[in-house]
Design brief:
The longest helix is centred in the last third of the chain and has 30 residues. Helix 6 runs antiparallel to helix 7. By secondary structure, this protein is mainly α.
């Protein structure tokens, strides 16, 4: 009840964003509640994004952001499913999202959006064999997903794809894998430019499936190398 009342105050502007929340004593008096109850209410506000937590200072009123909400949901997914299962589910989600985005890009990307995809592809090619390749890989796929114009999908893509790329095991054939990825990116770009949505979907599907299998093989190889008794 306390958390709901404070959230209503923030939404109506009675408690402006970035102003300190009332003290625990003031809230105890207002609601006739104990300090532990008030602290739990403030914790709920923080969990829902309506209060910012700053060490050594009173929490301040805030408005939840899309990024914050989805980031919190992402953390819960990994906690609930575990890294291995969560990554498999995220790979599947990414495949559905990006195949749909490839179709949309082929069907209706504007001249500006096509230019951004081209720029991302060029940077990706220039980064082959360097530490920057992963970032340019993400940027290329992001340029395609952004064509859809859905901020929820784009935020999820930013959060989860970044996580998946960060979990990529090191590979002794990194430059060769970079070149393969770039060549597939170039094929995808060509299909989008041609307005061939069927080919764009096919290339994206093949590209993501191949990349996922390569990561699994690299992970198994690393585990075998770390275990001298493995067969």
């Amino acid at each position: 009840m306390i958390a709901a009342a404070l959230i209503d105050d923030i939404k109506t502007g009675d408690l402006p964003v970035d102003t300190p929340l009332p003290t625990e004593r003031e809230l105890c008096e207002r609601f006739g509640a104990s300090r532990p109850t008030v602290r739990e209410a403030i914790a709920q506000l923080q969990m829902q994004g309506y209060a910012s937590a700053i060490a050594g200072h009173r929490p301040r009123a805030a408005r939840p952001s899309l990024d914050g909400i989805l980031r919190g949901a992402g953390d819960l997914i990994f906690d609930l499913l575990g890294d291995g299962e969560a990554q498999a589910h995220l790979e599947q989600m990414r495949q559905f999202v990006e195949m749909g985005a490839a179709r949309e890009a082929a069907n209706r990307a504007s001249a500006m959006q096509l230019a951004k995809i081209q720029q991302a592809l060029t940077r990706n090619g220039e980064a082959i064999g360097t530490r920057e390749f992963a970032a340019t890989d993400i940027a290329f796929h992001r340029a395609i997903v952004s064509v859809v114009g859905n901020p929820v999908l784009l935020t999820l893509h930013d959060l989860f794809v970044s996580h998946l790329i960060a979990q990529r095991p090191a590979s002794p054939n990194a430059e060769a894998l970079d070149r393969t990825s770039y060549q597939e990116h170039a094929q995808l770009h060509a299909a989008i430019l041609d307005g061939d949505s069927a080919m764009a979907i096919e290339v994206m599907d093949r590209h993501l499936a191949r990349a996922y299998r390569a990561r699994l093989k690299a992970a198994v190889g690393l585990n075998d190398a770390a275990d001298p008794d493995s067969a």
